[in-house]
Amino acid sequence: MSFAVAPGVAQPASRTQGARAQSTQNTRSGASSLAAPAVAAAMGACAARRAQRAQKPRTATRVVQEFEDVCEQTGVTLSRYCIELANRGIIDSDLDSIFNSIREAAKVISKLVNTAPLKQAELLGLEGEVNVQGEDQKKLDVITNDVFKNALRYTGKLGTLASEEEDEPVDASWMGTGETEAIPVLSEEFADTGKYICVFDPLDGSSNVDAGIPVGTIFGVFEEPDPAECELPADLSKGLSEEQQKCLAGTLQPGKSLVAAGYVLYSASTELVLTFGKGVVGFTLDTSIGEFVMTRPSIKIPSRGKIYSANTGNIAEWDEPMRQYIEDIRAGKGESGKPYSLRYIGSMVGDIHRTLLYGGIFAYPADTKNQDGKLRLLYEGAPMSFIMEQAGGKAITGHSRVLDIPPAAWI
Ligand code: AFP
């Protein structure tokens, strides 16, 4: 897909107003010890505030403010955050379990990426296969795909998993494809309980990984339209009947139906950024305690930036309006009147993370080689667009909102 995310830019990614400056305050406050009368008074005040807040819509910032009423945080971990959201009815317990698994998989992948240069024979280089996108698979693509898939599968909360690295979506209650016999991995009691679909790219930017350049995991969670209706065979690689294909196609939804999305950036630190559709929150892996700790309670993309991020090596192949637009912002002819500089890693998670925090524009425009752009709608475009919009930015193709586009297939 052709894709651009940015706040406050003219053509082709048009204007967004009013995005507030991003808050990066650290929430790791010390534990507070209040004397008993003060606690009683505080509890009364908290109850009154809670009653007032019940009238207002819930946002990520509001949920974090409510934690402060509890007055005992030594830092809000991702697991604590999800428990609090579940307690407040913002997410259900299934989504909480799914995020437990995503969190654990992210820690394992972070460790693999960090230690890969020390275990080159095992972890670096090509696997020898080409994935469904026609790209050479790296060993780490395959290993991280298994880590993520297995972590999610064992939750028993997912009907379907779809990975950028797999040819077909996987029925989450079974394992074993291709020549191997399909084996149930969950007892009947836990199997088929899932009403969620998880789409993910376990190691985006993996062509950079051998050089130790930042890479990331991208994921999105949808609710299955009606899980009961899709009776799929255990081994999807053996082909589907027309009815089953229709049923699966029915589970393909546009990004605006996402209930959650996020990414994990494996870089100088490991950053996990997520949204449940109520703002965007960021966590950093504290390796000393093995926990993701909230470091950015409410991420808002700055309303104007000065960086553009795109592979300008392809500029001669872009449409004329796109080429002109980039030339204009480079020359300071955009709305800010200041020239934009180029920063491009070629690893979407890193480029998006910087754009989210510093502002500006990230784009992968269509070119003569990639008529719809190179990025995959389901695994990259939709989850990242959900995050961008939730942070006050825009995600467009130049013609339409990315989140409105229904995916044509699982690839
Ligand atoms: P790899 O996973 O093959 O490294 O691709 C990464 C990616 O999908 C995305 O993360 C980048 O933004 C984009 O491709 C970079 O593509 P170019 O190398 O064509 O600029």
From TrEMBL:
Its EC number is 3.1.3.11. GO terms for cellular component: cytosol. The keyword Metal-binding applies. One of its GO terms (molecular function) is metal ion binding. GO terms for biological process: fructose 1,6-bisphosphate metabolic process; fructose 6-phosphate metabolic process; fructose metabolic process; gluconeogenesis; sucrose biosynthetic process. InterPro entries: FBPase_C_dom, FBPase_class-1, FBPase_N, FBPtase, Fructose_bisphosphatase_AS. Pathway: Carbohydrate biosynthesis. It comes from the Eukaryota. Signal peptide: none annotated. Residues 301-408 form the Fructose-1-6-bisphosphatase class 1 C-terminal domain. Residues 77-296 form the Fructose-1-6-bisphosphatase class I N-terminal domain. The keyword Thylakoid does not apply. Gene3D superfamilies: 3.40.190.80, Fructose-1,6-Bisphosphatase, subunit A, domain 1. Its cofactor is Mg(2+). Belongs to the FBPase class 1 family. HAMAP family: FBPase_class1. This is fructose-bisphosphatase. It comes from Effrenium voratum.
